[in-house]
Amino acid sequence: MSEDDEWRAIGERLRRTRLIAGMSQAELGKHVGLDRTMVAKIEAGTRRIGALELTQISGALDVPIGYLLEPLPSVLSRRGSVVDEDFDSEIAQESGRLEIVLTTWLGDLRQLVDLGALRPQPLLVSKRPVDSEESARAAALWVREVLECRLDPIDSLVELCERAGQFVLVTEVPGEGASVIDEEIAAAVVSLSGDPGRRRATAAHEFGHLVVGDEYSNDLGVYASRADREEVIDAFAAELLLPSQVLTSIGVGASGISRSQLVRAAARYRVSWSLALRQAAHAGVLDLDSQRAMARIRPTRSEFLDALGWAPQPDLESIRVPPNYAHAVMEALQWGAITPSRAVELMRGQISLADLPPDDEADDEP
Amino acid sequence: MTEASAAATAPLVLDASCLSHFARADRLDVLRDLLVGRQCWTTETVLTELNRGIADYPLLGDVRSQEWLHVAGLDSVAEIRLYDTWLKRVGSAGRD
């Protein structure tokens, strides 16, 4: 690509990123001390800028400089973003922001793989076609079998996904989730917003996209044509988190499952009340009237905690990156391939500089 | 060439503090004379940093016009990519 073409492409990416950030050219210009017409020329690729200006612009847009420099991963550009040109709506901007987080996450994973610090597991993709809710539920049980979860609650979804080859990042960017498969690397991002049950459902949903072999998904702004497909993935997620068989074994007999039994199951398997109700109905242990009645009275947090005997629950808030990824960051730091500042950046707020081992350069003294 | 003689002829890269002190004393000519025979460089980033102080110290504006001082920029896409590669090793959080 010629230098002119490169600058045009950078300008276009800049324009797109600015729109996702919901900024006008004048607003961006004000942030970085440039005139609006200058911003327009940069976006058109007719005015070139230096590293310093590009750094200021990327800072104002809250993206790494590499995001403006490099083309989107081919799978994202090939599939076409769900954002496309409709950046005005809040939902498209939210989708775009998740796409930025996903692309950056993929880039960081690629860096650690290229350094030899991170070795992704082979991707766990179903060999059978998954095109109905029934086949999606079967795929979830197959995953449980392969990953030796049996019918137990899944403690750490992030760890489970990593074992299946998908690296999940928990992000503060609002929205739901997004995922991508780029050659041997599968990456997913899940928003921290919402309650833990919803977060786990989103993570399981993105995992579903990997298992059924979807190269790219961004679950905000899902168009009607894709709604059926998302239903199939949701069935996978529900069955993965709380297998129907667990509920049928509890709700035996004519009366089915009681509210307190279902509260306890939802608490143990850490799923939302609506997911538990949906699974109970699917398992045939809850009739429609009881489902409606129970949906109206959501259990309180204390009810959930009481069902678990007030045992402390793993805190999902503090986990942002998968365990092997975190270990790879520490390895790269030990090798001197990255600095402590970069290590903290890669850990996405899970640790601070003070948590890292002290600089051992002094040990090199004779 | 010995290590010492190589060091004596290697180009010099001047940081903001050195340039700022000589500029504010209006003696950039002295700095030039001290370093005569050496190739002197600074960066566009250093000049931008000095520019921020021009309102308070107008003499800082003279640095850019010194013909003996070469300015290295990071302007081509290939150069900026290398800069990005470097950032991905050292980190960029909270820096300007």
Give the helix/strand layout.
The complex is a heterodimer of chains A (366) and B (96).
Chain A: H1 3-20, H2 25-32, H3 36-44, H4 51-61, H5 65-69, H6 74-79, H7 90-114, H8 133-146, H9 157-163, E1 166-171, E2 177-182, E3 185-191, H10 196-211, E4 216-218, H11 224-241, H12 244-250, H13 259-268, H14 273-283, H15 288-296, H16 301-307, H17 323-335, H18 340-346
Parallel strand pairs in A: 1-3
Antiparallel strand pairs in A: 2-3, 2-4
Chain B: H1 3-9, E1 12-13, H2 16-24, H3 28-34, E2 40-43, H4 44-51, E3 69-72, H5 77-90
Parallel strand pairs in B: 1-2, 2-3
Given helix and strand content, the structural type of chain B is mainly alpha
- Strands of the biggest beta sheet of chain A: in what spatial order? 1-3-2-4
Give the low-pLDDT segments of chain A. Answer: 79-83, 220-224, 362-366
Described by strand count, sense and barrel closure, the largest sheet of chain B is:
3 strands, parallel
Question: How far apart lie the N and C ends of chain B?
Answer: 39 Å
Largest interface: A-B, 26 and 21 residues
Global morphology of chain B: flat
Mean pLDDT of chain A: 88
Q: How are helices and strands ordered from N to C of chain A?
A: HHHHHHHHHEEEHEHHHHHHHH
> What is the helix content of chain B?
40-55%
Supply Rg of chain B: 16 Å
* Major β-sheet strand ordering of chain B: 1-2-3
Number of helices of chain A: 18
Report the radius of gyration of chain A as a whole number of Å: 23 Å
Task: Write down the overall mean pLDDT of chain B.
Answer: 90
Q: N-to-C SSE series of chain B?
A: HEHHEHEH
- For the termini of chain A, the CA-CA separation is 50 Å
Low-confidence segments of chain B: none
